[in-house]
């Protein structure tokens, strides 16, 4: 029996993830596909509230290792909800950031890549991942609000980009360049990738 798809939208900061995620949800709804959005970090959970303080208060310090484990624990807080949505409720789950972001951002700070991945072993892998990519790494710094949160520094984002590139050989990973494109053009490209999955996925969920 087919289950609902797990879809991840990834990218550097201020590349349009939130906008495109909203557009995708509208497409799914118009196609009569039950859907829900989960944004990571989920700042509404007990752990998420601590993460929110860490991200918004630059005086609030945690070791890189502690911060990474908090982000991973935040994903595990939603594990059961994700699984139940996909299987019991036949609801497509769209993830605005996921494991890939968690690993890339921590590895960019100098932590071992595999060590960063280990806490998420057992989490469900997306059936399809969209990575919103920039050819011009400085383009994000020109966007309104950039720099408000802890990780929004151009030099650091370059390091994050390098770590994300280690995932590009993952199955069902799709790079979509956003430079010089209108919102609607990017929206169409994303939908062309996602549409084949909307009637369900026959195979079992893969795990990290």
TrEMBL record:
| Gene3D superfamilies for this protein | P-loop containing nucleotide triphosphate hydrolases (3.40.50.300)
MF terms (GO), sorted A to Z: ATP binding; dTMP kinase activity; nucleoside diphosphate kinase activity
Q: Which GO terms describe its biological process?
A: dTDP biosynthetic process; dTTP biosynthetic process; dUDP biosynthetic process
Pathway per the UniProt entry: Pyrimidine metabolism; dTTP biosynthesis
Cellular compartments per GO CC: cytosol; nucleus
Q: Fetch the InterPro entries from UniProt.
A: P-loop_NTPase, Thymidylate_kin-like_dom, Thymidylate_kin_CS, Thymidylate_kinase
Q: Which CDD domains does UniProt cross-reference here?
A: TMPK
* Keywords, in A-Z order: ATP-binding, Kinase, Nucleotide biosynthesis, Nucleotide-binding, Transferase
> Boundaries of each Thymidylate kinase-like domain copy?
9-190
Q: Which domain of life is it from?
A: Eukaryota
EC number(s) given by UniProt: 2.7.4.9
Which family would the database say this protein is a member of? Answer: Belongs to the thymidylate kinase family.
| Identification of the protein by name | Thymidylate kinase
Which species is this record about? Brettanomyces naardenensis
């Amino acid at each position: 029996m087919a289950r609902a798809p797990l879809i991840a939208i990834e990218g550097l900061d201020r590349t349009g993830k939130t906008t495109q995620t909203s557009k995708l949800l509208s497409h799914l709804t118009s196609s009569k596909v039950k859907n829900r959005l989960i944004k990571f970090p989920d700042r509404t959970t007990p752990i998420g509230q601590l993460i929110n303080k860490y991200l918004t208060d630059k005086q609030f310090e945690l070791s890189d290792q502690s911060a990474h484990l908090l982000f991973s624990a935040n994903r595990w807080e939603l594990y059961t909800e994700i699984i139940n949505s996909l299987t019991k409720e036949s609801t497509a789950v769209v993830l605005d950031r996921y494991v890939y972001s968690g690993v890339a951002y921590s590895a960019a700070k100098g932590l071992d890549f595999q060590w960063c991945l280990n806490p998420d072993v057992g989490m469900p892998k997306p059936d399809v991942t969209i990575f919103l990519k920039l050819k011009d790494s400085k383009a994000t710094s020109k966007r309104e609000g950039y720099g408000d949160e802890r990780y929004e520094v151009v030099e650091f984002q370059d390091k994050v980009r390098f770590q994300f590139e280690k995932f590009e050989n993952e199955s069902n990973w799709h790079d979509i360049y956003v430079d010089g494109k209108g919102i609607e053009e990017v929206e169409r490209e994303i939908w062309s990738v996602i549409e084949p999955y909307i009637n369900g996925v026959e195979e079992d969920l893969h795990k990290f």
